[in-house]
Amino acid sequence: MPLPSFLRLLLLAALWGGSFLLMRVAAPVLGALPTTFARVLLGALGLGLLLLVLRLRPQFGGKLGATLVLGVVNSGIPFLMFAMAARSLPAGYSAILNATTPLMGVLIGALAFGERITAARVGGVVLGMAGVAVLAQAGPVALTPEVLGGMAACLVATACYGLAGFLTKRWVTERGGLDSRIVALGSQMGAVLVLVPVVAWELLRQPAAATAWLAAPAPVWGALLGLGLLCTALAYVLYFRLIADVGPLKALTVTFLIPLFGVAWGWLLLGEPATWAHLAGGGLIGAALWLVLRPVPAAPVALQGAR
To answer: Where are the transmembrane segments (predicted)?
Structure first.
């Protein structure tokens, strides 16, 4: 992976790792679904403002429909699934299941998009998941129907992430490409559109939620702005640029780094302890990244006339 792309990968992981801290501030006050909707709405507005400042016209070149669908697959559905899972799953389990994204990408790529599946990539995915498990230090939970449903929701979300990377490559990159900022804007517009009726129905069922929005203190609004403008708008610009530069599988390895940055932000900003388990998990994740990101050997070419 070229150095600029690797630095983008690190910055993306830092942003998405920080999103857990910001959601910890906003979600208990506003609820998971309104927080998710505010995140994608502010992300879309932030991206629109960015294009306006840069005087970059949002010309989709006939790919507007594709980017809207990408937003549903890559943001709308996964955000809803993780919000549902949070009702029954401990955060550690969600982090572990989120790390199955590259595995989903490897499987979907091999089954539907002709990607080569190698022992090194599979081994890297397994090592990465083990590293996240060590970091999360998740304990056993009873496999109740609610817990199983939460696990299934997480796996639906990671399958969406894995699928969206390849759809972006096929629908956008291989059809002439688009500026990553325009792809990010279209994707967040799609997420907003799919979440509008869900949020409207939730507010009709629970009108008190609207009052919580109006009465939210300044730190909550600050957290929402950070989630929307930094962890969504800027993050998706970086993500779609990574897909265009290094491909979907390598871009998906960001999910291995997110827990590391989540721990680092917690240690720096919240005074949470850093333990030997964090160091061990970080070592496993580093080894996983090396296995997944290293170049794939070229397939052997049969010699003409060989018998």
So the answer is: 36-54, 66-86, 92-113, 125-143, 149-168, 180-200, 220-239, 251-270, 276-293
